[in-house]
Amino acid sequence: MKFKKESVKPFILGFITALVIGGLVFGGIKLVQGIKKNNAKREYQEKEDNKSETIDGITYTIVSDNKSDIVCDAFKDVKYSNHNYFITQDGFAYALSEKKYSTTKQNCKLLDDKIKFKSVINGALISTDNGKYYVEYNRENEIILRKSNEAIREIDLLLKSNAIYADGYDSVYDEKTNIEREEFIALKGDGKLYNIFINNKFNSYTGDRTYNIAKEELFKSFDDETIKSFRYEKDSENGYILTDKGVYVQTITNLECREYEDIKCEYNFVKDKYLSKYANQAIKFDYENSYRFDYANVHITTTDSKTIQIDMRRKLKNK
Questions:
Q1: What's the domain count of the chain?
Q2: By 3-state DSSP, what share of the chain in percent is helix, strand and coil, each rounded to 5?
Q3: Which of 15, 185, 212, 290 qualifies as a FRET site for 33, CA 20 to 30 Å off?
C-alpha cells in the first residue's frame, strides 16, 4: 500500500505535535511533583529547625515534648524524685510505675500514710523520727519500704550537719593512720551544697571504729538561686545542679587536657543557657552524659505534666 506525500505530512506533524504536548504534560507533572517534594523537604527542615537550636557550640534537639503519660495527682508537689519513687513536699513517699495501680488507677501509690520523710542520705530515706528506710522490690516485684535497724554512723553525722540530701562520691584510706576519709556532697536547707569529709578510724586492738566530721566546706552556691537537686561525680562530665532559676552541667574547663596526656582535666559547673529555661518548672530532671560530652540526653518532667526529651550534641575540637 502506498501513501501519498500529502497524507504523510499531516500524519507526521500530528505525531510530532502529540509528542510535544505529551512531553509538556509529562514535564509539567514532574515539575509539580518536584515542587511538592521540595516544599515537603522545606517544611520538614523548618520543623527540624524549630526543634533544634545551637548555643555556644552545642546543638539542642527536642526529641519529644508531650503530655506526660504519668497519671498521678501527688506528682505535682514533688520535693525529691528517683526513678521509681518520689517524696512530696509534705514528706510522704510514693511508688512510681510505668503501669497504673489497680487500687488507685494512677501511676503512683502512697507507700505508707503514717511515715513522713525529711531527708535522703546516701540512698536511705530518713523519717521525721530518724528512722532509716530503703525503697526496694519484694518477691512479687512490688515497690516497698524496708526499715533498717543498722547503725550507719555516716548517715547520723550527715543528719547532725543538717543535710537534706547527701551522696558519697569518694573515699581514701590511709594505711599509716588506719583512717578512711569518706567524701560527701550535701544539700542543706539554705539551698547550698557542702563538701563534708568524714573520718572513719579503725582500732585494730579493740576492733572498734570511730567516726567524726573532719572538715566541712562550701562546695557550690549561686547568688539569688536555691539548689533543688544535684548529681556529682568526681572527674566526670556526668553531673548537674538544678536550681529554681538555672541548670548547671559539670564541664571540663581546660579543653587542652583532651589533647595532652600530661595535662589533668579540670571541672566546674557551667550554666546551660538552653536547659535553664526549664529550671523553674522542672519537678523531675535526668541528665545522662556520654564520655567527654559529645552527646548527652536530658529528660524533664514539668509542673504542667509534660515530659520533654532533649538531645545535646557537641562536636569536640580536642579529644
A1: 1
A2: 20, 45, 35
A3: 15
